[in-house]
Design goal:
185 residues, alpha/beta, Double Stranded RNA Binding Domain, Arc Repressor Mutant, subunit A, 2 domains, four-stranded mixed β-sheet, two-stranded parallel sheet, 6 helices, globular, WH-like_DNA-bd_sf, MethylDNA_cys_MeTrfase_DNA-bd
């Protein structure tokens, strides 16, 4: 797997005037992506409601207006490729999140390195983010992640092996983990 693009490209705070969004049909329902004018993911998830996703974007990055598009090039292509079996495709596009603090930024970058089919626990996730004692903060990073699938918070489970939470429902999380699981011989 190639190294993913960083979840945060810089700390510059600017308001995005116009953003684009597109929705792709998936086996888990409609999946929408909001992108900035540079083609970077600002938010994404299993919904056809761009207002819902826009509310997840930090106010300094939230577009003032959203323009619907049939597709968003490499971003929607990555979603389509994922569902066609190329499960690392979302890791190759750039994501911009700025929702608070250095730990969250490090955590989202660490999440992008969790390989498909190899879920980690919240404890392991905290360690990968450089703060082994910050297990609750790791869970918060998952909960505040605006870019589902591109920043794969679905690949984090509780230490007892149970799924934990997921903004888009445990049924979707289980489906994604099963889809990414390596085939058994």
């Amino acid at each position: 797997m190639s190294a993913p693009s960083p979840a945060v490209s810089d700390d510059t705070i600017t308001t995005v005037i116009t953003g684009g969004y597109a929705t792709v049909d998936t086996p888990n329902g409609p999946f929408s992506v909001i992108a900035d004018d540079s083609g970077r993911v600002l938010a994404s998830g299993w919904t056809d409601d761009p207002a819902y996703l826009a509310a997840l974007i930090h106010r300094s990055r939230r577009p003032e207006t959203l323009q619907r598009s049939a597709a968003l090039g490499s971003l929607t292509d990555a979603v389509t490729a994922y569902y066609a079996g190329e499960v690392d495709a979302p890791s190759r596009v750039e994501v911009v999140q700025l929702s608070g603090g250095t730990f969250l930024n490090k955590a989202w970058d660490a999440l992008r390195l969790v390989e498909p089919g190899r879920p980690v626990t919240y404890t392991e996730f905290a360690e990968r983010a450089g703060e082994p004692a910050a297990v609750r903060a790791a869970a918060t990073a998952c909960a505040r992640n605006a870019a589902a699938l591109f920043v794969p918070c679905h690949r984090v489970k509780r230490s007892d092996g149970s799924l934990g939470g997921f903004r888009y429902g445990l049924e979707t999380k289980k489906w994604l983990l099963d889809f990414e699981a390596p085939a058994e011989d």
